[in-house]
C-alpha cells in the first residue's frame, strides 16, 4: 500500500490473536454502524462509548493542493528548469492506461466499486487470514490509502513529521479517524475521482510521485502508454516502494509484478495469452532521473538563479522567504521569462570561448548580459563558470547581477562610467565639440568642485595631487593626450584628464542624479553612486553589476527612456491564479537631445576611438572600460534593439590578468594564451563583438537619430569657448 506500512513480521500467540480478533471485530462493528446507521438514529438509540467516539471524529477530509513542480520557461516556451520536492505531474483518469487501474484494484482493493470507503468484508478476511497464521494481509481500501496519503501530504507541507500517519505507527484512534474520513470521501467524490486522485498522489519512488511521474521515471513513457507488465509492476510497487524497488531489488520487483498478474488472471481481468507474455517480459527499465533546480537547467543556469531569487525576494509570493521557497517547490508555478534562447546560446558560446569552464586554470570570469532597450527585458545572461560539475570551474556567484539577486559586490566600471559625465555635460548646456583642457593633471583636496548638495556629513572627497602623501597626479592610459581636445574626443578615446576637465565644469550633484536616472547603483547595497567621490568620474570607486550597466546604456539607445531590467513576464499557479511580477516601468529620465548627443559620441568609439576594431557591421555605440592594472575590463555597447555588457575579471578579488613584470597573468581561450596587457577592447571587447555580430540582426538595427546642433557645435565655435 502507498503508505509503506508493514504487513507484520511478528508471530502472534494464540491468545494475542484471539484478543486481536475481538478488538478488530468491535472495530468492524463500529465501522459497519457508521456505514449503515444514520447519525440521528444512533443518537436516538443511545450509542455505545465506541459509537460516541466514532461519531465525534472529523467528518470531512481537508484535501489540500498536491505538491506539484514549478517550471521556469524561456520566452519561446521551452523549459529551462523545474523546482520540486515531489516530482509529480497530475493527469486525468482517462489519460492513464486502462491496465493501470485494473492492476491496482486487483492487488489492492478488488471490491473498490462495491464498498463505501471501508471494506468491512475485506478487513475481516484479512484479519482471519492473519490470525490463522497465513501470509499477513492488509485491509485498507484504496479510499483509506488515499486518505492516508492526503494526511501525509498535509503534514509534510506544514513541515511536520508524517510518520505518525503511517500504518506501522498508527493507534486505534488513528485507524478510526482514517476510516471515518474514508467514508466521508466516498460521499464527496465519485469512485473514479477517488481513483484518479489516488493515482496522482501515491508515492512510487523518491523520484516519482503519482503514476505519470513514475511512468516517465522508470520507462520514459506517459501513463497513457503503460503496457500490462509495466502497470502490474507499478501496482505492486505501492505496497512497498523500497522493498519492491525495481532498480535496487529487481528480483523482488519481478516476483511482486507477477503476483499482481496472477491475481489479475484469477479475477479474469486479463487473458491467459496476455498473462503468459507479461510474466515472461523483462522489467526493461529506461530510467530518466528527473533533475530539478537551476544547477540542472537546460541552459542559462545563472539566469534561472536570478529568476529564482526574484521569487524569493518578492513578498507577493509569500510572507517569508520560507513561504516563497515552499511555493516554488510545491505550488506548480509556471514562470514565463524574457530569455531568448537564440541569444543565450550565442552568449554562452562566447564566454566559454574566453576561458572554457573545463580549461580555466586562472579562474578568470567572463560574462555577457543583454537587455532590450525600450522594454527592459533580459534576453541573455551568460558566464563561463558553472553551478555544478565534476570537471567544471564551479562558482555560485552570478557575475551579472546585484548581491541581493545572487551576485557579488559588483565590479568597478572603469571608463564605462564616463558617459555619465558626458550626459551631465550635455544636460547642463555644454556641447560635444566644445574644447576641454586635458593638460591639467592635478586636482588638490581643496579644488573648487561644484557641489551644492554637500553637507557637513557629506563632502567632496579625493584628490589627485603628487605633492600629497599617498597621492599621484591624474594619468592617462597613454602619453600624448595631455592637451586640449573636443569633449567628444575625450570620451571616445577615453582620456581621463579631459574627462576630469569636463567634470570640473558641471554640478557633481547633478551628475549623481543623472547616474540615478540611468538606474546606476551600488551592487552590494543598492545605494546610489556617490558622485562626490571624485574617482567616480572614471569609475574607480563603487562596484556595479553588468546588468545595471547594460540597462543604463539601453537608456541612451531609446533616446533617454529608462526601463528597469525584468526577467519574468508572468507567473501563474496550477489553478491559473496570476501573481504580480516586477514591471520595467519605462519612463523618460534623460533629455532626448542629451541621449542623442551621447549616442553620437559613443558611435565614434567603434570607428576611431578606444574600440575602433570592435565594429559589428550595423549602427552601434559602445564604451570600453579598464580599471587599474586591468583588474576589471568592460565593453558595454548597444544597437537600437539590444544593449549588452561584456565583463572580464576575477570574481574572488583584485588581480591583474596582465602577464608582465613577474605576474603570470590569466590564461585565455583554453590553450594557455596570455597577454602582456588586457584592456576593455581586447578580451571583453572581443566577446562583445563576436556575440553582437551574430545576434544584433535578430533585433532592430536602425540608425540612431542625429542629435540637434544645440548639443554638438560650440556656442561660439571660433572662440574656443569652454563655457
UniProtKB/TrEMBL annotation:
Q: Where are the transmembrane segments?
A: none
Q: Where is this region: Disordered?
A: 700-723
Alphabetized, the UniProt keywords read:
Carboxypeptidase, Cell shape, Cell wall biogenesis/degradation, Glycosyltransferase, Hydrolase, Multifunctional enzyme, Peptidoglycan synthesis, Protease, Transferase
Source domain of life: Bacteria
Span of domain Glycosyl transferase family: 77-264
Query: GO CC annotations?
Result: outer membrane-bounded periplasmic space
Annotated GO biological process: cell wall organization; peptidoglycan biosynthetic process; proteolysis; regulation of cell shape
Q: Which InterPro entries match?
A: Beta-lactam/transpept-like, Glyco_trans_51, Glycosyltr_51/Transpeptidase, Lysozyme-like_dom_sf, PBP_transglycosylase, PCN-bd_Tpept
Q: Which reaction does it catalyse?
A: Preferential cleavage: (Ac)2-L-Lys-D-Ala-|-D-Ala. Also transpeptidation of peptidyl-alanyl moieties that are N-acyl substituents of D-alanine; [GlcNAc-(1->4)-Mur2Ac(oyl-L-Ala-gamma-D-Glu-L-Lys-D-Ala-D-Ala)](n)-di-trans,octa-cis-undecaprenyl diphosphate + beta-D-GlcNAc-(1->4)-Mur2Ac(oyl-L-Ala-gamma-D-Glu-L-Lys-D-Ala-D-Ala)-di-trans,octa-cis-undecaprenyl diphosphate = [GlcNAc-(1->4)-Mur2Ac(oyl-L-Ala-gamma-D-Glu-L-Lys-D-Ala-D-Ala)](n+1)-di-trans,octa-cis-undecaprenyl diphosphate + di-trans,octa-cis-undecaprenyl diphosphate + H(+)
Give the Gene Ontology MF terms in alphabetical order: penicillin binding; peptidoglycan glycosyltransferase activity; serine-type D-Ala-D-Ala carboxypeptidase activity
Q: Which residue intervals define the domain Penicillin-binding protein transpeptidase in the entry?
A: 368-640
Q: Which Gene3D superfamilies does the annotation name?
A: Biosynthetic peptidoglycan transglycosylase-like (1.10.3810.10), DD-peptidase/beta-lactamase superfamily (3.40.710.10)
**Entry's family note:** In the N-terminal section; belongs to the glycosyltransferase 51 family.
**Family matches, as PANTHER family:** BINDING PROTEIN TRANSPEPTIDASE, PUTATIVE-RELATED (PTHR32282), PEPTIDOGLYCAN GLYCOSYLTRANSFERASE (PTHR32282:SF33)
Q: What is this protein called?
A: Uncharacterized protein
Amino acid at each position: 500500500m502507498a503508505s509503506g506500512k508493514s504487513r507484520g513480521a511478528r508471530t502472534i500467540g494464540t491468545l494475542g490473536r484471539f484478543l486481536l480478533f475481538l478488538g478488530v471485530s468491535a472495530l468492524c462493528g463500529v465501522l459497519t454502524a457508521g456505514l449503515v446507521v444514520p447519525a440521528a438514529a444512533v443518537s436516538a438509540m443511545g450509542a455505545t462509548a465506541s459509537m460516541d467516539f466514532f461519531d465525534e471524529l472529523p467528518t470531512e477530509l481537508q484535501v489540500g493542493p498536491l505538491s506539484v513542480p514549478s517550471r521556469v520557461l524561456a520566452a519561446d516556451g521551452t523549459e529551462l528548469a523545474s523546482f520540486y520536492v515531489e516530482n509529480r505531474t497530475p493527469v486525468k483518469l482517462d489519460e492513464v492506461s486502462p491496465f493501470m487501474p485494473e492492476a491496482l484494484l486487483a492487488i489492492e482493493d478488488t471490491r473498490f466499486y462495491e464498498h463505501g470507503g471501508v471494506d468491512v468484508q475485506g478487513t475481516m478476511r484479512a484479519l482471519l487470514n492473519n490470525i490463522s497464521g497465513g501470509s499477513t494481509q492488509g485491509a485498507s481500501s484504496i479510499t483509506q490509502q488515499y486518505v492516508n496519503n492526503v494526511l501525509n501530504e498535509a503534514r509534510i507541507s506544514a513541515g511536520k513529521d508524517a510518520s505518525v500517519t503511517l500504518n506501522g505507527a498508527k493507534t486505534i484512534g488513528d485507524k478510526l479517524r482514517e476510516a471515518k474520513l474514508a467514508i466521508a470521501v466516498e460521499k464527496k467524490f465519485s469512485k473514479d475521482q477517488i481513483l484518479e486522485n489516488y493515482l496522482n498522489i501515491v508515492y512510487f519512488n523518491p523520484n516519482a510521485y503519482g503514476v505519470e511521474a513514475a511512468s516517465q521515471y522508470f520507462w520514459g513513457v506517459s501513463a497513457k502508454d503503460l503496457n500490462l507488465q509495466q502497470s502490474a509492476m507499478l501496482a505492486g510497487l505501492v505496497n512497498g516502494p523500497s522493498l519492491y524497488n525495481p532498480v535496487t531489488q529487481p528480483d523482488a520487483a519481478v516476483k511482486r509484478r507477477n503476483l499482481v498478474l496472477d491475481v489479475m488472471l484469477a479475477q479474469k481481468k486479463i487473458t491467459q495469452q496476455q498473462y503468459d507474455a507479461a510474466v515472461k517480459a523483462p522489467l526493461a527499465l529506461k530510467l530518466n532521473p528527473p533533475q530539478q533546480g537551476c544547477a540542472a537547467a537546460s541552459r542559462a543556469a545563472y539566469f534561472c538563479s536570478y529568476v529564482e531569487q526574484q521569487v524569493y525576494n518578492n513578498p507577493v509570493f509569500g510572507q517569508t522567504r520560507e513561504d516563497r521557497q515552499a511555493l516554488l517547490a510545491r505550488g506548480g508555478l509556471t514562470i514565463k521569462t524574457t530569455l531568448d534562447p537564440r541569444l543565450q546560446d550565442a552568449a554562452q558560446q562566447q564566454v566559454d570561448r574566453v576561458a572554457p569552464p573545463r580549461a580555466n586554470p586562472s579562474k578568470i570570469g567572463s560574462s555577457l548580459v543583454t537587455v532590450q532597450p525600450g522594454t527592459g527585458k533580459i534576453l541573455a545572461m551568460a558566464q563561463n563558470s558553472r553551478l555544478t560539475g565534476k570537471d567544471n570551474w564551479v562558482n555560485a556567484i552570478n557575475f551579472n547581477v546585484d548581491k541581493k539577486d545572487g551576485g557579488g559586490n559588483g565590479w568597478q566600471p572603469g571608463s564605462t562610467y564616463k558617459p555619465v559625465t558626458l550626459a551631465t555635460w550635455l544636460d547642463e548646456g555644454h556641447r560635444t565639440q566644445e574644447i576641454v583642457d586635458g593638460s591639467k593633471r592635478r586636482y588638490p583636496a581643496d579644488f573648487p568642485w561644484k557641489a551644492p548638495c554637500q553637507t557637513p556629513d557629506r563632502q567632496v572627497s579625493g584628490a589627485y595631487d603628487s605633492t600629497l602623501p599617498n597621492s599621484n597626479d591624474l594619468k592617462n592610459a597613454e602619453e600624448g593626450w595631455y592637451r586640449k581636445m573636443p569633449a567628444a574626443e575625450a570620451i571616445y578615446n577615453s582620456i581621463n584628464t579631459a574627462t576630469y576637465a569636463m567634470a570640473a565644469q558641471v554640478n557633481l550633484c547633478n551628475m549623481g542624479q543623472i547616474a540615478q536616472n540611468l538606474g546606476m547603483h551600488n551592487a552590494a547595497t543598492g545605494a546610489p553612486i556617490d558622485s562626490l567621490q571624485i574617482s567616480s568620474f572614471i569609475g574607480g570607486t563603487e562596484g556595479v553589476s553588468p546588468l545595471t550597466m547594460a540597462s543604463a546604456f539601453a537608456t541612451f539607445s531609446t533616446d533617454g527612456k529608462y526601463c528597469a531590467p525584468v526577467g519574468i513576464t508572468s507567473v501563474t499557479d496550477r489553478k491559473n491564479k496570476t501573481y504580480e511580477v516586477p514591471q520595467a516601468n519605462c519612463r523618460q529620465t534623460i533629455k532626448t537631445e542629451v541621449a542623442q548627443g551621447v549616442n553620437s559620441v559613443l558611435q565614434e568609439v567603434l570607428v576611431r576611438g578606444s574600440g575602433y576594431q570592435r565594429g559589428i557591421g550595423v549602427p552601434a555605440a559602445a564604451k570600453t572600460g579598464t580599471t587599474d592594472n586591468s583588474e576589471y575590463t568592460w565593453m558595454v555597447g548597444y544597437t537600437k534593439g539590444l544593449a549588452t555588457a561584456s565583463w572580464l575579471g576575477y570574481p574572488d578579488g583584485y588581480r591583474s590578468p596582465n602577464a608582465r613584470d613577474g605576474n603570470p597573468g590569466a590564461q585565455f581561450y583554453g590553450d594557455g594564451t596570455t597577454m602582456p596587457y588586457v584592456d576593455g577592447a581586447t578580451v571583453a571587447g572581443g566577446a562583445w563583438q563576436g556575440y553582437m555580430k551574430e545576434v544584433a540582426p535578430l533585433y532592430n538595427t536602425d540608425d540612431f537619430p542625429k542629435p540637434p546642433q544645440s548639443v554638438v557645435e560650440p556656442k561660439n565655435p571660433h572662440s574656443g569657448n569652454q563655457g
